Amino acid sequence: MATLKYTKDYPRPQFVREAWQSLNGEWDFRFDDANVGEREKWQEELHGDLKIQVPFTYETKASGIAESSFHPYVWYQRNLQPPADLNDKRVMLNFQAVDYTAKVWVNGCYAGQHHGGYTAFSFDITDYLNKETNGTNKLVIKVEDSQSCTQPRGKQRWVEENFECFYVQTTGIWQSVWVEYVSPSYLKSVKITPDFDNRSVRFEYQTHQAGGSLRLETRISGHQKTLKQVSLHMDRPWLQLDVDLVHEANGPWKSESWSPQAPNLYDVEFILYKDDVEVDHVYSYFGLRKISIEQGKVLLNNTPLYQRLILDQGYWPESHLTPPSEEAIIEDIEAILAMGYNGVRKHMKIEDARFLYWCDVKGLLVWSEMAATFEFNDEAVETFMNEWTQVVRQQYNHPSIITWVPFNESWGIPQVFTHPQQQKFTEAVYHLTKALDPYRPVIVNDGWEHTVSDIITLHDYEEQGQVLFERYADSSRLLDGSFSFNTWKYAMAKGYEYRGQPVIVSEFGGIAFTSDQGWGYGNQVASEEAFIERFRNITQAIKDTPYICGYCYTQITDVQQEVNGLLTEDRKPKIPFEVIKGINLA
User: Fold this and answer.
1) Which of 192, 274, 433, 440 would bridge with 286, disulfide CB 3.0–4.6 Å?
2) Res 250 pLDDT > 70
3) CB 35 within 8 A of CB 103
């Protein structure tokens, strides 16, 4: 069941305003390989020789261009015509994600820039707009990208051809562009922290204040009735409020928690008044749930949680990292649930906010994983830290996210096994993440060579179930560094000890049918029967190992040259869903 103010295709479902306008669709477009655009004043008039369908990047068929070669500088232009009755409203230009550096001009005036390919950002463009009624305004965007391995790029290749598990790059606008209209005083953000044990919730408000007396009203509702309504005066831009969720006013009512079995959500409205006149109204929601770790187990709402995850890289054949539609997002989530998985590891991608919204609604657990850099130097450290901070803050409110994963398989920290400086970097990222969010576990280096980590995760693509079971039989030997658990990597980095954390096999499987068009892990299989037998044996081996408290199978779909999905790229099942579900739930 969707939340109170669900609006199809709304780019930011956790912070909804009614006055908004999508800027997706056709834009003028131009390549600028020689980087002459700014000198030649393209920001004033682009004279684009191509058309592109935003938010699809030029590399994709969905964009209408389908040019896979790398171009470091690209330009966009379109007109914006705000409503005639703006009055004193401010116009906020919002981008959900642009890879990598975006520079924005409005009517030839520079409005700002943003670095980072995976996070949302906004500019107040009011002062650059034409003031005439029904005035037409020119938006121009220049995007700068590179093949540098010091910028977070995840699975995007940095050479001209795909290789191994790296795919066509993503350059430019790849998530929604839109405007919203706000009063001079408005709500900038709300950080929502549920307290499961005390049945309460904390709101941390940030406002933009333009004088006058401000009052903020918060209404919490469930089952289509108001449960709580509280008010406070905003005498400074930052305030916080704790609200008890126990409700007795309209008769006995029990607060409801969020879980995969019952993904109950509370709707919440934030209404800002200036001098007792409503000036902003934002719709949101939250889930009352708790993630904790005790005695080597991950607990959800104080109950042990066995995690049956599937790895999801979030690619589509005609639109790559950009979901082709909201229906496509829902289809993937429902397929994952239909196969008996209760969670997803979003691999090397910061996902569209609408994906996380539907995970919240449908009860799918999420590990949120940062896109990796592939070099270690001062520039890489700075770019990573800046963008990761934005990611954690922007995704914090989603109840479906239960784990943060800043690094994977030592990517970007290639000598972390022995290198003190790289080890200190992982410790810094761990503690920074905990400073922003002390309530979720952090897996610092998913797969192997862990330094400080709340969960120890292991990647192992062994084909034989019995071999896998025997390999993991002696947990103490496996985790104390006595041998390389997957024949070439160790669980812990040098100088770090296993301290009783939960253990999860967070990559395994990767089975592919016989094909000369791509690859999978290990030997390819020739028949459905051989696929099912191998899938059952390796899955059961992990489930039969008592101290392992979850797994993540690779992967949901094929991705370009990687053909090891349970579904094809165009989402056709290779194995019946009920067979996979039966093995997962056995």
Assistant:
1) 192
2) no
3) no
